[in-house]
Specification:
Layout: H1 3-25, H2 32-44, H3 52-69, H4 82-89, H5 96-112, H6 121-135, H7 142-149, H8 153-164, H9 168-185, H10 190-196, H11 202-213, H12 217-225, H13 231-241, H14 250-264
Helix pairs in contact: 1-2, 1-3, 2-5, 3-4, 3-5, 4-5, 6-8
């Protein structure tokens, strides 16, 4: 056996495993089996077959991390740990491909028994963030998210803020603003954008958009598209934001400032 080649293969897989562990910490449990399956395929496809002891060490560390990310929940505190399932399946040395097969089966069964409330805070926070990313246009409440997570609202809010460095409400607003910006760049009208991103109050939307982006939605769209904003839209924004409409020198002002606004965006 070429020990140097085995060492090279082992180090490469070790780096991939560490990268996978970092990825799992920021992903929802629903995608764990697929991500782990990709890694197991890499292990089986190694240029030099790994000794069974090396492969077992790789998978044991991965199982230990998964057990940490999703320990037993309140209704099932004694749920079998993945590491114990792996050890039970390999009472005798096995080739790496057979070992990977046993591990994949154990992971699928283990993930199927995960309770939402059993996840550690960092995974729970990313699970909530993923839900917001996918349902930002809907009416989302903290109570709804807490029910989905299996945690109380206070516990979930604290875990989310610690992990994401912002509150759930701030994350929802930021997500909606980001999607609003994308739609305005595509040329959508301001009125349709407000409804499409799930914002309930127009005045509130204009205020948060200007605070985040630095200009009003209509002006952002105008500068991005390179066309003057419609007068009625300008008047409507002025009424909502409390600003005085200035129509007389609007075109002249646009010619002087459009380049600077676009460059700042």
């Amino acid at each position: 056996m070429d020990h140097e080649a085995v060492a090279t293969s082992w180090l490469g897989l070790l780096e991939k495993r560490d990268g996978l562990i970092a990825e799992l910490r920021h992903d929802v449990p629903a995608v764990w089996p697929a991500a782990i399956g990709t890694f197991l395929n890499d292990v089986k496809a190694a240029e030099q077959p790994l000794p069974s002891g090396v492969a077992l060490l790789l998978l044991a560390d991965l199982a230990r991390e998964l057990d940490r990310l999703a320990p037993g929940g309140p209704s099932n505190p004694r749920r079998a740990r993945l590491l114990a399932a792996l050890e039970a399946a390999v009472a005798a040395p096995l080739p790496a491909d057979v070992l990977c097969g046993h591990f994949k089966t154990a992971v699928d069964q283990w993930c199927g028994r995960i309770e939402p409330g059993s996840l550690v805070p960092e995974v729970q926070a990313h699970r909530v963030a993923t839900y917001i990313d996918q349902h930002f246009a809907e009416h989302i409440t903290l109570t709804q998210l807490a029910r989905m997570s299996g945690w109380c609202t206070r516990q979930l809010s604290r875990a989310f803020r610690t992990t994401m460095q912002m509150s759930i409400h701030q994350y929802l607003q930021e997500t909606r603003i980001n999607h609003a910006v994308a739609r305005l760049r595509e040329g959508d009208k301001v009125e349709s954008v407000v409804a499409a991103v799930g914002w309930r109050g127009r005045k509130n939307f204009f205020r948060h958009f200007k605070h985040r982006v630095g200009t009003t939605p209509a002006r952002y769209r105008e500068c991005w598209m390179g066309t003057p904003a419609i007068e009625s839209s300008t008047r409507h924004e002025s009424e909502l934001t409390g600003a005085e409409p200035k129509h007389s020198d609007h075109r002249a002002r646009r010619d002087r400032t459009v380049d600077s606004v676009v460059s700042s965006l």
